[in-house]
Amino acid sequence: MTTSAKGGATLDTVLEFVKEQRGFDFTGYKRSSIERRVTKRMSEVGVEGYDTYLDYLELHSEEFAELFKTILINVTRFFRDRPAWEYLADEVVPRLIETHDSSTPIRVWCPGAASGEEAYTVTMVLAQALGEVEFAERVKVYATDVDESALDIARHGAYLPRQIEDVPRDALERFFERTDQRYVFRKDLRRCVIFGRNDLVQDAPISRIDLLVCRNTLMYFTAETQAQILRRFHFALNNDGFLMLGKSEMLITHSDLFTPVNLKWRVFRKVARRAARERLRALAFDPNNGASQTIGSDLREAAFDTGGRAQLVLDSTGALVMANEEARRVFSLGVGDFGRPIQDLEVSYRPVELRSHLDTVQRELRAVALNGIRWRDGERERIFDVAATPLLADGTLIGVIVAYDDVSERYEIEEQLQASRRELEQAQEELQSAVEELETTNEELQSTNEELETTNEELQSTNEELETTNEELQSTNEELETMNEELRHRSIELNDMNLLLETVLSRIGLAVIVVDRQQNIRIWNSQARDLWGLTAEETEGQHLLSLDIGLPVTEIRPQLKAVFTGDSQREEVTVDAVNRRGREFQCQVTILRLGELREDGVGAAIMMVESGSD
Fold this sequence. Notes:
By secondary structure, the protein is of the alpha+beta class. About 45% of the residues lie in helices and about 20% in strands. Residues about 1-5, about 275-280 and about 285-305 have low confidence and may be disordered.
């Protein structure tokens, strides 16, 4: 055990602290590698000794993310070890396609995906083999990692030119789109790649996989942890599934799980097993053991019953260990939910609040039954009988199984029976009442018939009024069309006048600014743009005195005031100015009042030209 020179803290102390604070368990990683990476990070932040580094972690919460980046070593490339990918494309993928008919989906898992290069490499290989349309319809690529920051990069699928150097030119042109600084993987194919967090040591594997690509990831784990991960890989793969490892990884001691297809390129095939218990062993884990060892036969035998009803298995700490297929379907549980505390999951309070009842089961070691629990699942209401039962081994609580019996159909039949009885009684009462009402109705019908004749005459009169109104509306419509035609002609004339005004302002050879009574800019011609470097779009609607240009607008404020107050029709002044190119010059400014002195008046025209120029 490595001890700090300054105190009693050890590397194990640091790892335990990280596990408590962030939930990352690195005890399954190779000891020498972890020690080197932690020491490297300590050197980078300038601390010596594990005691000091623990203090640093407590004071700087952002250091956890940097430590994880250092330990996890996210090194990857597109088409890394190209001959291996060529073998996969030429030999493995065709065999994979042959064993699946055109309607069968193909599922791929890339654990340890880091920033996504290898997941997108698999995508390109399969898309070239199947064609892009069939690929999008049939293939799902699940790319997982424990590093959320790396997964964020992978989800965007945007890479620098140096990162795509190993991508063949034809694949680059076919699967990437070029932006200003990056190459972005095509969005339509990127939708087929699902990125998510998955800890190979603690989380349950993704199931029903046809191709599993895990390259240069196993080499960071201890032999015991590698064995556990490989058992999970065996569980994840279909019986005819393929496993592709990195060039530094071998499976010499695991021939009971995988048989080599090509040792040179590290391609293996699953050795099929039929025993259900062997498959379930790969899912069971002990959250207090970093190597993620199997719990033992007591919990495996008592906890999981593969019946038709939904079942959840919790360990003694309240973490979700297993959920059968019906539970995953009904409660939308995924692989990322395994190992999480039940109180962090929606199923802890829907369809029923479980937490208090689970406390009762754990405290009193007795089963708790909850009947007639109603739950609205989308538009459908379902009813469950829920039972939480303790799982005991030698009198000690090792877990809890929660079973959900869907009794919706039974309740529905009972409710329908009760409703039918009530409807029958009501129908008998209504029948008696209907007979009495029928006699009264016959009398009323006679009276109603007479009223209808009167109403018919009124309707005839109303119809004549509607005809008259329709003719009036038609006349009004014709008048509106005439007005619209006049409005269109006036709009054309106005556009012609605006064009003429714009032409005049651009040809007079002066920089012209027109402001309203509030000194907000209404017109800014092209010479003003060339002189001061601002376009009309940037200035129109802005206050004149708020502009940051080479014209000292505050120096012409007195002349503007004289024009707007009516003291003068025209004002001239020469000021020192700087044009958009930074050249100083004498600017002759002429201000002319436009229109009458009214609040809604146009305002003034400001004409600017270099003093002494024509």
